[in-house]
Amino acid sequence: MGRSRSLLVALTGCLVLAGCGSGPSQVGAAVISGDRVTTVDQVQDLLDKAVREQPAAQQLSQQRKLDLLGRELVRQLVIHDAIVRAAQREGLVADPQLLEQTLANDPLASPVPTTATDPSQLAQQVANRVRDHREVITDSLLLQALGQKYVDRLSVTFDYTSVVSDDGSAQPVDRREKAIAKAEQMAASPAAAAEVIRADAAAGQQTSVGESVPAAQAPALATMVLFGVEPGTVVAFQPSQEQEVWIVAIVRQRDLTTPAVTDQAAQPTGLQLAGIGQRLLQPDIDQAGVRVNPRYGVWDPVAMNLAPSSAETAGVVLPVKGAAQP
Asked: Where is the signal peptide (predicted)?
């Protein structure tokens, strides 16, 4: 796998309706992932179907939040394409018996309840129902299978610093902006990350060097961006919305082959396995080069999702300048 590259660079050059001048044309495309094109018309057909069939989609429409559903549909289609590629490469197939059993009691057959309070969750559930149900369930089973295949031999080693407070000056800077600025500092050269972390440690910030985490020991953490990037990549992200701390880290090593040796292995849930499987798709998506029509936003590799704009992503992924290619 090649280096995980910054989607900001790709999107700056490619997020125009006229396209990039080579490969599939962006004209009329909702998203291009590798050589796969999903058109605006295809996404609109799914949106129209949702509004016809799903009261929850009608609710989103009345709230002027159908853009959430459009972004979720594009996200799912990007993930689906990556799942297909990864399953072929890894020799994975969905358990046919489990697939047929699930379809026989199709959990996607009933409309989405309109009582949900989170519009994003509502959009995800509606998107699942308007897509082909066999495809949606197959995707879920394949993500779990991919996560199960690697959970006991996936680990990352990284150095990190943290951002825990806002800038209280006359022109305050929020934690996200501070974390992204620090990530840009750390990615400026091969030696920059160590220098930033040493300075932060001296200033009393929470830092660590040589932190090694097996996925089997922390399956919830293994769904995060740290586990989806190549060595020599700096990431800035907020591990939990409930806690205001941001982590800025450089991944030093990513191992997919060595079985974990730990006495603290936690049995991952099906959702965690699927989350790990999805995170393992990140290098495939980066290599394919996702080009999103601006009407749906931008691809956010930290969240493995679409954000309305580059200013609203869940963080950043930056290759270290001048570092050797892995």
From this structure: 1-29
